[in-house]
Amino acid sequence: MNCQVKVKDRVGTINPIFTCQPAGAQFASIGVKDCIGIVHGGQGCVMFVRLLISQHLKESFEIASSSVHEDGAVFGALDRVETAVDVLLMRYPHVKVVPIITTCSTEVIGDDVDGLITKLEEGLLAEKYAGREVHLLAIHSPSFVGSMVSGYDVAVRDFVKKFAKKGEPSEKINLLTGWVNPGDVKELKHLVSELGVEANVLFEIESFDSPLMPDGTAVSHGNTTIADLEATGSAMHTFALNRYEGGKAAQYLEKKFKIPSTIGPTPIGIRNTDALVKKLSQVTGKPIPASLVKERGIALDAISDVAHMFLADKKVAIYGAADLVIGLAEYCLDLEMRPQLLLLGDDNAGYVNDPRIKALQDNVDYPMEIITNADFWELENRIKNEGLELDLILGHSKGRFISIDYNIPMVRVGFPTYDRAGIYRNPVVGYGGATWLAEQMANALFTDMEHKKNKEWLLNVW
Amino acid sequence: MPYHEFEVSKCIPERKQHAVVKGPGEDLTSCLPKGYLNTIPGSISERGCAYCGAKHVIGTPMKDVIHLSHGPVGCTYDTWQTKRYISDNNDYQLKYTFASDVKEKHIVFGAEKLLKQNILEAFKAFPEIKRMTIYQTCATALIGDDVDAIAAEVKEELPDVDIFVCNSPGFAGPSQSGGHHKINIAWINQKVGTIEPKITGDYVINYVGEYNIQGDQEIMVDFFKRMGIQVLSTFTGNGSYDDLRTMHGAHLNVLECARSAEYICDELRVRYGIPRLDIDGFGHKALGDSLRKIGLFFGIEDRAEAIIAEETAKWGPELAWYKERLQGKKVCLWPGGSKLWHWAHAIQEEMGVKVVSVYTKFGHQGDMEKGVSRCGEGALAIDDPNELENQEALRNLKPDVIFTGKRPGEVAKKMRVPYLNAHAYHNGPYKGFEGWVRFARDIYNAVYSPMHQLSAIDISKDDYATDKGFVTRRMLSDANLSDEAKASPITGYSGKFDPIAAIRAKTDADYPVYPRRSAAEAAE
């Protein structure tokens, strides 16, 4: 078998690819309207995550901390959550949803957040906030389990679990986008609307590409409402585009409300988008319109201009969230490229059984490595000490110095991408995403050819 | 009543004593906000944690070191690549960060073995690096791992390495400030005095509380070297681990950020009798005075005067050019700790702006004392600010520009207030005579941004001009200036994008050689 799946053989992490679970839960929380999460732990767990997300989106948004100090760590810190809920509700009268997101410290000291929520519901909410719609929910996201990816997955499930209701059967589908960008949401909405499918797009962050308005009042917030979350329980079907970022919620809805679900494939590249379109059409009975045939044709026309002339046989390393990395690897293969190394930044035991990874193992005819629980040293060490040659790197900004120090061009994709302008505005999914990715990769290679004077004259005629 | 009560905080009365407005004729006795108290949960404060105060602010700027955090990956990842503390060894400490990657089984069974394996792996991956700092985090503090014992064990096994341990979990204190304190004390307890210094000059200093943001330290060390002063160590920006073990050998501690690093200076005074001199690298006058004070201490004022004369002749006119154009512009000076007092007075005096508000995220009352005393009448001072109060203040004060962090900067942007990064700078360094002009340039560029002007127009309602294809900053800034000012041949800052490269290219031959003092002279 040419394609090997290995677990990183060191125990430590040199330059992590992911941050921890609470970050994923926080990202999910900002997709919900009238929601401000309270992260139960030290203040850094919020301050840095807000910074990280705001670096990526170049926007701000609210997440609170229970500000656990030393006494709380010793004697228990539930009183901090009680105060936090009250202070938050008093000062943010529009807030209706308050997830309480745990961290390593408060999971270790064993604070009973679920018990506290019952207490607050019967006490504080029933008395001081009687008549106001407020929903509290616990999201357990200890930092020593999983990663920011599983934190997102867990939080999405917990929000859905909290709100989903069985109602009148609806024609709508649930669309769990996974941890994507505003540009992806736009592309996905466009796709379903061309198909005439009514979709409940969940944890919807399109408006985080928000305007600067003359009156100075614009704010960025998620668009998924309580009603949207409730309606997940009566949808006709759930599409979780990313297996590891929304898959748990789809399974929950299937089990609890018998809503059939399609989990994946991540619609990156023409082929995976085709699969999504077909499945959407089958489930809803809506025919695939000519407009999408044309759109797909425009994408293929653009991609054909770069694929076999420039992208073919280029060696690429890809790192980041598993669904993104696998989707990109699949697309790269369709583009005749040669993914060499895929780095999945956490220890999810399910990766080895992912049918997409099994397909890579069955079909790739050259040496490819897939590393789980990976860090950036898995990439850098191979380049620096083991002779790995690459033409291109695909991944997020935290890996930027590998590209810079080893002179390998890089296309920024995933989260976070703070060192390039406007990445969040562009899709990687759908036909639009396929075009954007192929052209970004081609342009990165062109710039590199010119920078290194490596057959830069090729582009005189094209 | 000097306290300022925010509308949005009326429901949390304890906030009332955390903000003041400096009234007419008032001094500190009537208007000092409370500071460094526990944070109010859920207030959406901007504070960080004691781990980041120790590791991210003070530890990591040390350049030739493996910085390992003992805990889950998040603490490490989150405090990696979010600052601009560069170094002259190819930014090793910016590029590499290490996490012991504590998982659930380690929480249950202990993570000491894991830590040891981590240390060995890290040294193996970077065989040329022989120094390490280890930072405890919330999780490993709570499970009670003995990090010191593991470090001692490894040092026994690997005699050529040295390891420093900082036990400052995130919850240790109301803000990052708790971590500053902890790492200061840990360093002097564990490391100072473990190597003897090589003294090569007559005037030997430690440069303390300086983190080399965008090259600040390199700018300042260049001045010290031009004065014939040996900089034994820098705590910690661009600083070397082993140099910092020799801090006890200096004649003087020159202290920049008194918020984060006064503790080690005070301990060096108590334990080794080394005096502390507080200086200020920001502002032509403050920097000139600082160099003078150091010169005076060593009896080499003439060397300081020569540098001040040369530098102010070179950069003074450009600073004046900006000052003329920034007159009366309203500034919210909202940094983390010490910059509120480093900058408040200097920007008003030398750039002509008016500081309408100062805040500090993690400062103590002492910082507010200095900050408030350096502000003018009517200035609003806020301790431990939170999101809603900031927005209310911005709406009321309507500043022309705000200096704050990246994320609060995004809030300001939406409210149509241009922002400059007070922590990492926009296009620094800001220290040094040239650096101060770079700061003025960044303020000017923010205030007179043509795009900012366009963002005020509502094309659906406003009557707006259509006769111009462009507007320059100069057209905006000079509109109301005198003809003489308009005719100035200066066009703003004349330096390079990167002023640090030239300093790094210097060799010993580029610095003046002063004769060493005789033993008799030194004895005087």
Automatic annotation (TrEMBL), chain A:
InterPro entries: ChlB/BchB/BchZ, Nase/OxRdtase_comp1, Nase_comp1_CS, Nase_Fe-Fe_bsu. Its EC number is 1.18.6.1. It comes from the Bacteria. PROSITE patterns: NITROGENASE_1_1, NITROGENASE_1_2. It is an enzyme of class 1 (oxidoreductase). Pfam families: Oxidored_nitro (PF00148). Residues 20-445 form the Nitrogenase/oxidoreductase component domain. One of its GO terms (molecular function) is nitrogenase activity. Keywords: Nitrogen fixation, Oxidoreductase. Belongs to the NifD/NifK/NifE/NifN family. This is Nitrogenase molybdenum-iron protein beta chain. It comes from Rhodopseudomonas rhenobacensis.
From TrEMBL, chain B:
Keywords: ATP-binding, Iron, Iron-sulfur, Metal-binding, Nitrogen fixation, Nucleotide-binding, Oxidoreductase. GO terms for molecular function: ATP binding; iron-sulfur cluster binding; metal ion binding; nitrogenase activity. Residues 49-447 form the Nitrogenase/oxidoreductase component domain. The keyword Oxidoreductase applies. It catalyses: N2 + 8 reduced [2Fe-2S]-[ferredoxin] + 16 ATP + 16 H2O = H2 + 8 oxidized [2Fe-2S]-[ferredoxin] + 2 NH4(+) + 16 ADP + 16 phosphate + 6 H(+). It comes from the Bacteria. Its cofactor is [8Fe-7S] cluster. It is an enzyme of class 1 (oxidoreductase). InterPro entries: Nase/OxRdtase_comp1, Nase_asu, Nase_comp1_asu, Nase_comp1_CS, Nase_Fe-Fe_asu. Its EC number is 1.18.6.1. NCBIfam families: alt_nitrog_alph (TIGR01284), ANFD (TIGR01861), N2-ase-Ialpha (TIGR01862). PANTHER family: NITROGENASE MOLYBDENUM-IRON PROTEIN ALPHA CHAIN (PTHR43457:SF1). Belongs to the NifD/NifK/NifE/NifN family. Hexamer of two alpha, two beta, and two delta chains. This is Nitrogenase protein alpha chain. It comes from Rhodopseudomonas rhenobacensis.
